[in-house]
Amino acid sequence: MQTVENSLIKEQLTETIKFFSKKGWSPATSTNYSHRCSNNPENLIISRSGVDKSQFKASDFIQINLAGEILSSDSPEFKSSAETEIHTYLYQKFPGIKCVLHTHSVLGTVLSQKFVSEKQIVFQNYEIIKGIEGNHTHDTNLYLPIVKNSQNMKDINFELEHHFQRLGEFSGFLIAGHGLYAWGKDLFSAKRHIETFEFLLECESIKGNLAWRS
Length: 214
Ligand SMILES: [Zn+2]
Fold this sequence. Notes:
Largest sheet: 9 strands, mixed
Helix content: 25-40%
Strand order of the largest sheet: 4-3-2-1-5-9-8-7-6
Number of strands: 9
Bound molecules: zinc ion
Number of helices: 5
Oligomer: single chain
Radius of gyration: 17 Å
Strand content: 15-25%
Structural class: alpha+beta
Protein backbone atom coordinates (compact mmCIF):
# COMPACT_ATOMS: atom_id res chain seq x y z
CA MET A 1 0.00 0.00 0.00
CA GLN A 2 1.29 3.46 -0.86
CA THR A 3 1.52 5.79 2.14
CA VAL A 4 2.75 9.36 2.51
CA GLU A 5 5.72 8.04 4.51
CA ASN A 6 6.62 5.47 1.81
CA SER A 7 6.42 8.22 -0.84
CA LEU A 8 8.81 10.35 1.20
CA ILE A 9 11.25 7.43 1.61
CA LYS A 10 11.14 6.84 -2.17
CA GLU A 11 11.88 10.52 -2.86
CA GLN A 12 14.76 10.66 -0.39
CA LEU A 13 16.23 7.36 -1.60
CA THR A 14 15.98 8.56 -5.22
CA GLU A 15 18.00 11.67 -4.26
CA THR A 16 20.67 9.45 -2.70
CA ILE A 17 20.78 7.16 -5.76
CA LYS A 18 21.36 10.18 -8.02
CA PHE A 19 23.99 11.57 -5.65
CA PHE A 20 25.89 8.24 -5.75
CA SER A 21 25.54 8.15 -9.53
CA LYS A 22 27.16 11.61 -9.80
CA LYS A 23 30.04 10.27 -7.72
CA GLY A 24 30.57 7.54 -10.34
CA TRP A 25 29.57 4.78 -7.92
CA SER A 26 26.86 3.13 -10.08
CA PRO A 27 28.00 2.75 -13.72
CA ALA A 28 26.15 0.89 -16.47
CA THR A 29 22.82 0.35 -14.57
CA SER A 30 24.66 -1.45 -11.74
CA THR A 31 23.87 -1.29 -7.99
CA ASN A 32 20.65 -1.62 -5.98
CA TYR A 33 18.98 0.10 -3.04
CA SER A 34 16.24 -0.76 -0.56
CA HIS A 35 14.35 0.47 2.53
CA ARG A 36 11.82 -1.13 4.85
CA CYS A 37 8.26 0.08 4.29
CA SER A 38 7.03 2.50 6.94
CA ASN A 39 3.65 0.74 7.33
CA ASN A 40 5.04 -2.83 7.43
CA PRO A 41 8.68 -3.61 8.33
CA GLU A 42 8.28 -7.08 6.77
CA ASN A 43 7.99 -5.42 3.35
CA LEU A 44 10.61 -3.47 1.41
CA ILE A 45 10.85 -1.03 -1.43
CA ILE A 46 13.79 -1.90 -3.69
CA SER A 47 15.16 -0.37 -6.90
CA ARG A 48 14.12 -2.33 -9.97
CA SER A 49 16.73 -3.97 -12.16
CA GLY A 50 18.28 -2.43 -15.28
CA VAL A 51 17.78 1.31 -14.71
CA ASP A 52 20.40 3.96 -15.53
CA LYS A 53 20.89 5.37 -12.03
CA SER A 54 21.45 8.93 -13.30
CA GLN A 55 17.84 8.77 -14.59
CA PHE A 56 16.32 6.94 -11.61
CA LYS A 57 12.76 7.95 -10.59
CA ALA A 58 10.62 7.23 -7.50
CA SER A 59 8.39 5.08 -9.77
CA ASP A 60 11.39 2.77 -10.39
CA PHE A 61 10.97 1.18 -6.96
CA ILE A 62 9.05 -2.04 -6.55
CA GLN A 63 7.61 -3.40 -3.33
CA ILE A 64 8.64 -6.89 -2.21
CA ASN A 65 8.36 -9.06 0.91
CA LEU A 66 11.23 -10.69 2.79
CA ALA A 67 10.85 -13.80 0.60
CA GLY A 68 11.73 -11.58 -2.39
CA GLU A 69 8.23 -11.85 -3.94
CA ILE A 70 6.99 -8.76 -5.77
CA LEU A 71 3.93 -7.25 -4.06
CA SER A 72 3.46 -4.21 -6.27
CA SER A 73 5.17 -2.33 -9.09
CA ASP A 74 4.32 0.33 -11.64
CA SER A 75 4.73 -2.17 -14.51
CA PRO A 76 4.51 -5.98 -14.85
CA GLU A 77 7.84 -5.74 -16.74
CA PHE A 78 9.70 -4.50 -13.67
CA LYS A 79 12.05 -7.03 -12.10
CA SER A 80 13.87 -7.14 -8.81
CA SER A 81 17.68 -7.17 -8.87
CA ALA A 82 19.55 -10.48 -8.92
CA GLU A 83 21.09 -9.33 -5.64
CA THR A 84 17.76 -8.94 -3.81
CA GLU A 85 18.59 -12.00 -1.70
CA ILE A 86 21.49 -10.13 -0.04
CA HIS A 87 19.06 -7.36 1.01
CA THR A 88 16.43 -9.76 2.36
CA TYR A 89 19.09 -11.79 4.21
CA LEU A 90 20.34 -8.63 6.00
CA TYR A 91 16.83 -7.41 6.92
CA GLN A 92 15.88 -10.83 8.28
CA LYS A 93 19.07 -11.18 10.29
CA PHE A 94 19.00 -7.69 11.85
CA PRO A 95 15.56 -6.21 12.68
CA GLY A 96 17.25 -2.82 13.40
CA ILE A 97 18.37 -2.38 9.77
CA LYS A 98 16.02 -0.11 7.83
CA CYS A 99 18.04 0.71 4.72
CA VAL A 100 20.59 -1.18 2.55
CA LEU A 101 22.69 0.58 -0.11
CA HIS A 102 25.15 -0.84 -2.68
CA THR A 103 27.85 0.82 -4.83
CA HIS A 104 30.12 -0.33 -7.68
CA SER A 105 32.94 2.20 -7.35
CA VAL A 106 36.31 1.64 -9.06
CA LEU A 107 38.09 1.60 -5.69
CA GLY A 108 35.62 -0.81 -4.08
CA THR A 109 36.06 -3.10 -7.08
CA VAL A 110 39.87 -3.02 -7.20
CA LEU A 111 40.76 -2.95 -3.48
CA SER A 112 38.37 -5.81 -2.72
CA GLN A 113 40.32 -7.90 -5.27
CA LYS A 114 43.65 -6.81 -3.84
CA PHE A 115 42.73 -7.80 -0.26
CA VAL A 116 40.50 -10.81 -0.97
CA SER A 117 42.97 -13.37 0.41
CA GLU A 118 43.04 -11.42 3.72
CA LYS A 119 39.20 -11.50 3.77
CA GLN A 120 39.06 -7.92 5.09
CA ILE A 121 40.53 -4.43 5.00
CA VAL A 122 41.48 -2.93 8.37
CA PHE A 123 41.33 0.86 8.67
CA GLN A 124 43.31 2.55 11.45
CA ASN A 125 43.87 6.09 12.69
CA TYR A 126 41.43 7.86 10.42
CA GLU A 127 39.18 10.53 11.97
CA ILE A 128 36.37 9.55 9.58
CA ILE A 129 36.11 6.10 11.25
CA LYS A 130 33.69 7.96 13.58
CA GLY A 131 31.29 8.10 10.62
CA ILE A 132 30.48 4.44 11.29
CA GLU A 133 27.80 3.93 13.98
CA GLY A 134 29.22 3.02 17.37
CA ASN A 135 32.73 4.43 16.80
CA HIS A 136 33.71 7.40 18.95
CA THR A 137 37.44 7.60 18.30
CA HIS A 138 39.92 7.35 15.45
CA ASP A 139 42.05 5.15 17.72
CA THR A 140 40.46 1.83 16.84
CA ASN A 141 40.47 -0.86 14.17
CA LEU A 142 37.60 -0.68 11.69
CA TYR A 143 37.10 -3.95 9.79
CA LEU A 144 35.55 -4.07 6.34
CA PRO A 145 34.99 -7.78 5.55
CA ILE A 146 35.41 -9.14 2.01
CA VAL A 147 33.57 -12.10 0.47
CA LYS A 148 34.27 -13.78 -2.86
CA ASN A 149 32.05 -12.78 -5.77
CA SER A 150 29.41 -15.24 -7.01
CA GLN A 151 26.31 -15.18 -9.19
CA ASN A 152 24.69 -17.35 -6.50
CA MET A 153 23.64 -15.04 -3.65
CA LYS A 154 23.49 -17.99 -1.24
CA ASP A 155 27.32 -18.31 -1.55
CA ILE A 156 27.72 -14.63 -0.70
CA ASN A 157 25.32 -14.82 2.26
CA PHE A 158 27.05 -18.00 3.50
CA GLU A 159 30.45 -16.24 3.63
CA LEU A 160 28.86 -13.15 5.13
CA GLU A 161 27.40 -15.28 7.93
CA HIS A 162 30.93 -16.43 8.85
CA HIS A 163 32.05 -12.81 9.13
CA PHE A 164 29.08 -12.01 11.41
CA GLN A 165 29.98 -14.98 13.61
CA ARG A 166 33.60 -13.74 13.79
CA LEU A 167 33.03 -10.00 14.23
CA GLY A 168 29.48 -9.59 15.53
CA GLU A 169 27.28 -6.98 13.85
CA PHE A 170 29.00 -4.57 11.44
CA SER A 171 27.87 -1.93 8.95
CA GLY A 172 29.22 -2.93 5.54
CA PHE A 173 31.22 -5.40 3.45
CA LEU A 174 32.90 -5.73 0.06
CA ILE A 175 32.30 -8.34 -2.63
CA ALA A 176 35.60 -8.99 -4.41
CA GLY A 177 35.87 -7.41 -7.85
CA HIS A 178 32.30 -6.21 -7.48
CA GLY A 179 31.51 -3.48 -4.91
CA LEU A 180 30.41 -2.30 -1.48
CA TYR A 181 27.28 -2.94 0.60
CA ALA A 182 26.47 -0.80 3.65
CA TRP A 183 23.34 -0.37 5.76
CA GLY A 184 21.96 1.47 8.76
CA LYS A 185 19.10 2.20 11.12
CA ASP A 186 17.78 4.73 8.55
CA LEU A 187 18.70 6.16 5.15
CA PHE A 188 20.79 8.95 6.70
CA SER A 189 22.93 6.43 8.58
CA ALA A 190 23.26 4.00 5.63
CA LYS A 191 24.31 6.86 3.29
CA ARG A 192 26.87 8.06 5.83
CA HIS A 193 28.28 4.52 6.04
CA ILE A 194 28.67 4.25 2.25
CA GLU A 195 30.38 7.67 2.13
CA THR A 196 32.68 6.77 5.04
CA PHE A 197 33.77 3.45 3.52
CA GLU A 198 34.23 4.95 0.03
CA PHE A 199 36.34 7.77 1.54
CA LEU A 200 38.45 5.22 3.47
CA LEU A 201 38.95 3.13 0.31
CA GLU A 202 40.23 6.24 -1.48
CA CYS A 203 42.64 6.95 1.39
CA GLU A 204 43.98 3.37 1.34
CA SER A 205 44.36 3.52 -2.43
CA ILE A 206 46.39 6.74 -2.29
CA LYS A 207 48.53 5.37 0.56
CA GLY A 208 49.17 2.20 -1.48
CA ASN A 209 50.26 4.24 -4.50
CA LEU A 210 52.58 6.41 -2.39
CA ALA A 211 54.23 3.32 -0.95
CA TRP A 212 54.60 1.83 -4.40
CA ARG A 213 56.26 5.00 -5.72
CA SER A 214 58.76 5.40 -2.86
ZN1 LIG B 1 26.27 -5.37 -7.45
